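notes to self, project folder thing:

trying the whole complex as one job this time. last attempt i did each chain seperately and stitching them together was a nightmare. two parts in total, labels are on each line so i dont mix them up again. if this works i'll redo the older ones the same way
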Amino acid sequence: MAEQAQMTVSDEVAITIENMNKWYGSFHVLRDINLTVNRGERIVIAGPSGSGKSTLIRCINALEEHQKGKIVVDGTLLSSDLKNIDKIRSEVGMVFQHFNLFPHLTILENCTLAPIWVRKIPKKQAEETAMHFLEKVKIPEQADKYPGQLSGGQQQRVAIARSLCMRPRIMLFDEPTSALDPEMIKEVLDTMVSLAEEGMTMLCVTHEMGFARQVANRVIFMDQGQIVEQNEPEEFFNNPQSDRTKLFLSQILGH
Amino acid sequence: MSDTHAQSVAFVRDTMLPEQAPPASEAGVVKWMRENLFPGPVNTILTLLAIYFIYKIVAGSLPWFWNGIWTTSSLAECREILQGATGGCFSVLTERWNQLLFGFKYPSDQYWRPLVAFILLAVAVAPVLFAHLPRKMLLFTGIYPFLAFWLIWGGTILSPLMVLIGVLAGLAAFRRIEASGFAMAALAGLVTAVVIWWLGGFLASAASGVLALEAVPSRDMGGFMLNMILGTVCVSLSLPIGILLALGRQSHMPIIKWICVVFIEFIRGVPLITLLFVANVVLSYFFPPETNLDLIIRVIIMITAFASAYIAEVVRGGLAALPRGQYEAADSLGLDYAQSMRLIILPQALKISIPGIVNVAVGLFKDTTLVSVISMFDLVGMIRGPILASTEWNGVYWELWGFAVLTFFVVCYGISQYSQWLERQLQRDHR
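result (full assembly):
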């Protein structure tokens, strides 16, 4: 694809995951995950529900704790050290399925809160940055409203802008379009595509296979807590290797 | 059937329908009465019955107010004037107002002091209650407790001043060392404050004449003033303590969690009245010998402990009502625990908890009358004791208790109205 040619991937490593395992009680959710993400890579993680794909990206910013193995984000080893966790979280943006905007704050306040309190940026400057990103997601006119007054698609774009205001080097998307009406999915996907074009390192858990074909340079398929297959999107969709992947693709693309 | 639809199943709308005003409803008093008072035979009978009862109550009580006597100096004189007619003897209020409001031992030439403290209370509380007032007013709110103490208890201004300085110095020390660890800083702050208080104690006793008001001991406090003191102090202490307890109960650190759980469950499992008896008799065993803790302070400790346990449970409900996503969003942005609690979680949780907190606050304010049981002469204690026991006013029940009811009602209704206003102010969904 023409667009993909513009998006460069560097050799610099952004995330390393080695032999990572996680259990919920005695339930083995993530089994021996190995994954290296280079800076500028756009990875789509797909798989049936319950396959551990959300859990995997939630481990990267320590919303979930892993019990075994090693995760290094941006050169910082993820351990139980709170300082390291806060450092990683301020470098890694996350967008949730249910937006999770702060309903008691205006859109602008949602976007400036973390820069002001975590990055210690002066309020004025934080507001300028926030307006810049709100313009980028095309809703600067909503800045003084509250999240409850916006549509789902608008809320999700605000959530993306809120993450970007922290100037993250990596963005995680946890099913960002799954809670949206079909009419609103496109506006969110467009925002994500333009983000990818700017070279952001992205990990997206999503069922939007069109998005995967358009922007991903790697698709990872997970099942039962394991990485079953990973490949470039063209190969992945046209020539899947494992039977599990074939079944999944036939179900998801078959209609 | 509309003819557009009649021919076939296929239907294409050419023009979208414009928005229209709802049909003008038939308004008027008659319609309102028909709908709300007389919609059917049963409701009509109930309405008539209710009107009859309201009439009987008003007709029975109006003459009592109307013929009320305000100027005599004893019940006997009232009866003489009334000559058997219905009428209240409100003279007890005009003659004993000072005892009802300030207790019977507070020096009468000093009444202006609690009065000034009461008026300043309004100024101090205003910026806390109304967020749109200038934030600089909070400075006065910070000074107010010390000022009010000096006004009500009297003595040299040096004692509350030194306490204030101790608090400020402790805070300054804490801020200084905060970066190098919370525990160290807290300890340093505490030590600084204690040293200054200790030195200040000497200073205050050495120069006890500096700006001194006539000292009034705690046992002379009484009347509605005592209820106000206890209510204000205990509400303002129990809210922050209750929030801390609620957060502690959610903590991942088992020791903190269990301390909070045990405290809350124990206090909630004990009637307030027993705690007050404990305050009266037993509490001094928990302090070093020779410390002679004021009874009012002991009572304040107990009521505060009681109310904070309840507020903690209310706030915990608010915390539990927040979706997990709010915690995760705050975490994912890199906010630390204190920041996410202060900026994200508590503002929302407290908003949900407002009705419950107000419920506890109103209950607590009314419960301050229980101190009359441990022989403190608050408003109820004054009525039950000195006033009803006096030869002049023995037997004046309705007027006195009516006064007490009205006084408490005004305050509690005010609190409740404020909370409803606040809830509307914080409404963020449909503005």
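what i see at first glance: Chain B touches chain A at residues 323, 325-326, 328-336, 339, 343-344, 347-348, 351, 426, 428-431 (CB under 8 Å).
need to look closer tmrw
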